[in-house]
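// run 5 | inverse folding | seed 20
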């Protein structure tokens, strides 16, 4: 059976992380992708990339509207292997940390946590104040894996894609998905 992964793209800067996750995961024939994009996420796709929303949606097996709280990912009986919110706005983080399911991305994340499945939040904000840190801590206490897109240099990135793929590779490691997206420490 295929791994079922939900990708949520919200309106923080860095929608390219969600797009690249989709593109790389779709290469894996053992993964089925469910995509939810917020309205702000859709806007940022056109502002920050050369992709259209339709192109990004075409990378997924199924697309769900963020305002549809009756979509399958809103239910715990919809079996998944995890969810990634990339990028994750502070507003979305707040909804998740406080179990306030005002849209499908937050509801799907809440379901992921209550069912004890893997949830990755690629929080994209800087600088951070204490309220942001409290929200991240609260989400982590609930079981979320906080994975902000922080650049590493040990693999000697030469392109923006190298930087993005190193972070995506960390997500894949957490979800148990094999990849060759970056050179690992100690592997020369």
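// decoded
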């Amino acid at each position: 059976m295929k791994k079922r992964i939900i990708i949520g793209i919200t309106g923080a800067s860095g929608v390219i992380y969600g797009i690249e996750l989709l593109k790389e995961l779709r290469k894996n024939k053992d993964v089925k992708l469910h995509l939810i994009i917020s309205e702000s996420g859709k806007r940022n796709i056109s502002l920050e990339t050369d992709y259209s929303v339709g192109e990004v949606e075409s990378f997924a097996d199924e697309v769900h509207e963020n305002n549809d709280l009756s979509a399958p990912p809103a239910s715990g009986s919809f079996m998944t292997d995890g969810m990634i919110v990339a990028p994750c706005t502070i507003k979305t983080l707040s909804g998740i940390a406080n179990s306030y399911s005002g849209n499908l991305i937050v509801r799907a994340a809440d379901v992921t946590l209550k069912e004890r499945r893997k949830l990755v939040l690629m929080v994209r904000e800087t600088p951070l104040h204490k309220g942001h840190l409290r929200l991240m801590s609260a989400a982590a206490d609930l079981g979320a894996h906080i994975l902000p897109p922080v650049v590493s240099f040990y693999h000697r990135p030469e392109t923006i894609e190298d930087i993005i793929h190193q972070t995506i590779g960390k997500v894949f490691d957490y979800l148990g998905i094999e990849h060759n997206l970056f050179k690992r420490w100690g592997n020369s």
